[in-house]
Design goal:
This protein is an all-alpha fold. Helices cover 60% and strands 0% of the residues. The protein has seven helices and no strands.
Length: 191
């Protein structure tokens, strides 16, 4: 339930921002020390990102949560599969962690809430996992609680207001009926 770009409440985010920064920093540190073979730093970084994901869910940053989850899955894939365990994958995860931190810092500093800015990074992480590149709309979470204002009820037309259009409507209707009768094979239309 993200609010309008100008109405995003940063209060809940500021409450957990220090924890998010610590977990993102620890994930980055674990991944930066990866030697290309050992899977423990990958699992550690994924565990820290899982913490970040949970906190982001609580403050209702769905698009940011989605990027966090996808980056966590990339790290877990790297730990399990040799084909994904590359320095390019590690670099993509590091860039995603940096993008997450920069986005959260910008939000706290007063930048408008627009998770669509994370689309290129989200697409890069999904691509690195071997998935189909998602459309930008995957990071679009409008507030569906906001309803447009109700329209005023239009007044009913009285006979005097309808009078000018009545002959035209009758002529058009009669022409349509004549056309249908000549073209139709249905007996009901030919009566």
């Amino acid at each position: 339930m993200n609010m309008d770009l100008d109405d995003f409440d940063i209060g809940p985010l500021t409450w957990v921002k220090a924890e998010l920064d610590n977990a993102l920093g620890a994930a980055r540190e674990a991944l930066a020390g990866w030697n290309g073979e050992d899977t423990n730093p990958l699992k550690t970084a994924a565990a820290y990102l899982h913490q970040v994901y949970g906190a982001l869910q609580m403050v209702d940053l769905q698009g940011v949560s989605l990027l966090t989850a996808e980056t966590e899955h990339l790290l877990l894939d790297m730990a399990k599969e040799l084909t994904v365990r590359t320095h390019a994958s590690a670099e993509a995860a590091l860039e995603a962690i940096d993008a997450l931190k920069a986005h959260l810092d910008a939000l706290v500093a007063g930048a408008p809430q627009s998770e669509l800015r994370l689309t290129p990074m989200y697409q890069a992480v999904v691509r690195q996992r071997g998935g189909e590149v998602p459309p930008p709309s995957e990071l679009f979470f409008p507030d569906t609680d906001i309803r447009p204002p109700k329209r005023a009820v239009e007044p009913m037309l009285d006979d005097e207001a309808r009078a000018p259009s009545t002959p035209h409507v009758r002529a058009t209707s009669a022409a349509c009926c004549r056309y249908c009768r000549t073209r139709s094979r249905w007996p009901a239309c030919n009566s």
